[in-house]
Write a structure and sequence with these properties.
- The chain is mainly beta.
- The protein has 3 helices and 20 strands.
- The chain is globular, with a radius of gyration of 21 Å.
- The protein is 11% helix and 58% strand.
- The strands form 2 sheets. It has a 16-stranded mixed beta sheet that branches. Strands 2-1-9-10 form a 4-stranded antiparallel beta sheet, with helices on one face.
- The chain has a domain of 172 residues: Pectate Lyase C-like (3 Solenoid), CATH 2.160.20.120.
- The N terminus is likely disordered.
- A hairpin with an 8-residue loop joins strand 1 and strand 2.
- This is Putative auto-transporter adhesin head GIN domain-containing protein.
């Protein structure tokens, strides 16, 4: 996904060079009635990123579904936004640019994206509301429905939302810079963060929780029973409810905060 960062950097350069004021002046009254969209393409010609900028439409969204009978674990290794909904009818719905949607794979409970040498694209949209910048990967949306997933692993710098959760236990592992947000209830939550990711369980009703942070990541959770927190690095654990028992081990500049 490093190329995406380069694309966004290129987009920022385009905006800086053109100047927002100049763009509005050039577009005139047309901007107040119509969107102006520029496509920034990373051709990676000769192994080096080469940006091509041209005015044109953003990639249209397409929808694809994947059959799944459900399982007890879900691993997310895709960019964009993934939503897990606890429900009786299992399945996966993918929305986004066709070039990316067609590359999404699901095997053994793991969502991933197949490699492609196609150019990556980002977009700059100018209208009367201002400027919007995004990439194809950021437009990817995946909804996973299953009745009994209890273990979640996040490996990409995207976001996983867990909705309507109602199980005895919840296990979440966030690697890298990914973000996980969950709402619902569980008797026990086990959270591991490796890197700079963030796990927000503030809207999860939970009795006991274990938190293990390695790096600069953050965890927000509100156990009312027992809380075991271990931090190695500069990460923070925020306890939004006061547990009846707290055990903490900190190696580094990390902190445990209670409200």
């Amino acid at each position: 996904m490093i190329r995406n960062l380069l694309v966004i950097t290129g987009v920022g350069g385009v905006i800086a060079l053109a100047g927002i004021t100049g763009a509005f002046a050039l577009a005139g009254n047309d901007v107040s009635h119509n969107d102006w969209t520029w496509v920034v393409t990373d051709d990676e010609a000769g192994g080096n990123s080469h940006f091509r900028v041209e005015r044109g439409p953003a990639a249209a969204d397409t929808v694809r579904t994947i059959n799944w009978n459900g399982g007890d674990s879900l691993s997310v290794d895709v960019p964009g936004r993934v939503t897990y909904v606890q429900g009786s009818e299992a399945g996966i719905r993918i929305t986004g640019p066709k070039s990316l949607v067609d590359r999404v794979r699901f095997e053994d409970g793991r969502l991933s994206v197949a490699y492609s040498d196609e150019p990556e694209r980002s977009y700059v949209r100018l209208n009367r509301n201002g400027v919007n910048v995004w990439s194809d990967t950021e437009a990817l949306r995946i909804t996973v429905t299953a009745p009994a997933v209890k273990t979640f692993q996040m490996a990409e710098p995207g976001q996983l939302n867990i909705r309507d959760y109602d199980q005895p236990t919840l296990t979440v592992t966030a690697n890298g810079s990914g973000k996980v947000v969950a709402e619902g209830r569980a008797d026990r939550a086990d959270v591991t963060v490796n890197g700079s990711g963030r796990v927000d369980l503030d809207d999860l009703e939970v009795t006991d929780a274990t938190v293990d942070i390695s790096g600069s990541g953050d965890v927000v959770v509100g156990p009312t029973g027992r809380a075991d927190v271990q931090i190695s690095g500069s990460g923070d654990a925020v306890l939004t409810r006061r547990p009846s028992r707290l055990q903490q081990t900190i190696d580094g500049s990390g902190e445990v905060e209670q409200f």
